[in-house]
Q: What sequence folds into this?
């Protein structure tokens, strides 16, 4: 998101004259942090691509999980990409 | 999040002229949050991180968590493990007002406290949780709850029920009266039955747990019954509504619970009455005839009174269950939506997750998951997602879920209380 979000913000703000969703996280992203934090099930070591891949593998069942399969099934690859970008921003 | 905001402000500086006047005029909006539980505390912290002026009104000195309170009843955690303060929240610059809010004047945009003080708001967010409907069961009132605790608000009620379990003689029956839907924490009564059985099986093995239920089905039933069979064979009996399970009245003096067909005299009675949104929601005019508060899924703004948002157990927004997980997820969606509204933007379409962990023993847990999106003004389940842990899982999987349950508790309480 470091590279993606500010550019999006600047572009859309310039174009429309409003600050569009400057801080709005992509749909679903804020629910992830109910379980994932630095000192619990941390995602900090993962890149955005690795998060997207993990979500795809959970969804398909290629990767075993206690519950991530049931969560990942609620997000498309595009949605997972947006969430991964937001989770790895800064 | 602070970082994010700061970055926004930096990149925003160059764009200052592009920001509409209205958004700038409202930049220092004051948001009043009533209730410092899972919903209110999470929302207050998110709004503060987004740079807003936040006042949090909370009646209690400390917050005792219902999630994991059943582990105290089970005898493998202490009250201290489930007790939190709002000190770190206050240190983050949120003004914490220790008082009960008694009224809301939506026209004047003011909250009234019990001592008559008024607080102005630009946006009001209510997360008051539930109130027990005491007159629903004949003979059950606040005084009866001192003998037959509900322990459905954690704190003194939890300690009381635990003390009663400890004092009980071996061979006694512990009754749990479970309410009809909807109520706070659908799997909660059955987790409680499990963990009380865990304690009894070790300390008082001739005792029984009797669940008298006002419904014929319950959350994760197959998983609970599988666990009871494996862990506590013969100890837990469930009487559904259709077999006369509905408790219609109680007599604390004789420790008797009456149902349609029967009466049960027991050693310990945990009576969980029906519930409704906390009183302040009713005073504010945001609760409807159902006792709950209808809200829009994008912003959790009341459909009855504009400018007031309701989250957590008190709100009705579709199929999301009343859980701490939901309250926290809704808090973050509502906070970003309020931020957007104050900037003159439209809140974006949200997606929310709920997960309820239930412990059947200290090292045995399972989950129900839901992923929700707005459909026709309500949050609806995404069909392909969600569901429960599979039946017939290995014990090591249940042990892993119990570990993750503890990890969830640590994460969510840190998000809410800092
Ligand atoms: C036994 C049990 C087990 C549970 N286990 C789980 C679990 O494992 N996982 C899970 O996700 N959920 C669980 N829950 C559900 C969870 O407790 C609730 O869903 C959650 O607390 C809802 O949060 P809330 O913010 O809506 O209300 P609450 O957490 O109840 O917070 C409301 C706060 O508002 C304050 N308040 C109310 N009115 C006023 C007023 N007028 N003025 C000032 N302050 C006020 C109250 O003092 C309280 O602190 C459980 C519940 C029970 C009973």
A:
């Amino acid at each position: 998101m470091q590279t993606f979000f500010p550019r999006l913000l600047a572009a859309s703000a310039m174009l429309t004259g409003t600050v569009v969703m400057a801080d709005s996280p992509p749909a679903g992203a804020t629910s992830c942090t109910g379980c994932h934090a630095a000192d619990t099930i941390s995602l900090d070591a993962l890149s955005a691509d690795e998060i997207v891949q993990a979500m795809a593998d959970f969804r398909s069942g290629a990767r075993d999980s206690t519950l991530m399969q049931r969560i990942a099934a609620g997000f498309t690859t595009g949605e997972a990409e947006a969430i991964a970008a937001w989770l790895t921003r800064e | 999040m602070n970082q994010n905001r700061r970055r926004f402000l930096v990149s925003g500086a160059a764009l200052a002229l592009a920001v509409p006047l209205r958004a700038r005029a409202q930049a220092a909006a004051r948001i009043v949050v009533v209730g410092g539980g899972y919903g209110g505390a999470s929302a207050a912290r998110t709004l503060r991180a987004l740079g807003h002026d936040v006042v949090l009104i909370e009646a209690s000195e400390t917050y005792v968590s219902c999630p994991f309170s059943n582990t105290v009843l089970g005898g493998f955690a202490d009250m201290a493990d489930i007790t939190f303060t709002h000190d770190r929240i206050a240190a983050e610059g949120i003004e914490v007002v220790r008082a009960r809010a008694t009224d809301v004047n939506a026209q004047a945009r003011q909250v009234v406290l019990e001592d008559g003080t008024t607080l102005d708001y630009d946006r009001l967010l209510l997360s008051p949780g539930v109130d027990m409907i005491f007159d629903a069961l004949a003979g059950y009132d606040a005084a009866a709850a001192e003998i037959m605790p509900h322990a459905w608000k954690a704190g003194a009620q939890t300690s009381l029920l635990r003390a009663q379990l400890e004092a009980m003689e071996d061979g006694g029956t512990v009754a749990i009266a479970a309410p009809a839907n909807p109520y706070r924490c659908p799997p909660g009564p059955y987790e409680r039955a499990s963990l009380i059985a865990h304690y009894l099986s070790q300390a008082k093995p001739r005792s029984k747990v009797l669940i008298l239920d006002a419904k014929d089905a319950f959350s994760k039933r197959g998983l609970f019954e599988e666990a009871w069979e494996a862990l506590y064979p013969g100890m837990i009996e469930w009487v559904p509504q259709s077999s006369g399970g509905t408790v219609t009245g109680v007599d604390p003096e004789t420790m008797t619970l009456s149902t349609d067909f029967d009466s049960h005299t027991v050693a310990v009675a945990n009576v969980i009455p029906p519930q409704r949104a906390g009183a302040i929601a009713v005073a504010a005019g945001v609760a409807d005839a159902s006792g709950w508060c209808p809200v829009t899924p994008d912003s959790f703004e009341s459909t009855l009174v504009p400018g007031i948002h309701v989250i957590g157990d008190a709100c009705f927004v579709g199929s999301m269950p009343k859980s701490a997980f939901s309250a926290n997820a809704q808090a973050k969606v509502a906070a970003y939506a309020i931020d957007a509204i104050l900037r003159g933007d439209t809140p974006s379409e949200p997606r929310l997750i709920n997960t309820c962990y239930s412990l059947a023993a200290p090292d045995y847990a399972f989950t129900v998951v839901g992923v929700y999106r707005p459909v026709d003004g309500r949050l609806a389940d995404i069909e392909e997602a969600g569901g429960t842990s599979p039946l017939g899982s290995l014990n090591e999987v249940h042990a892993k879920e119990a570990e993750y349950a503890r990890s969830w508790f640590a994460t969510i309480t840190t998000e809410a209380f800092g």
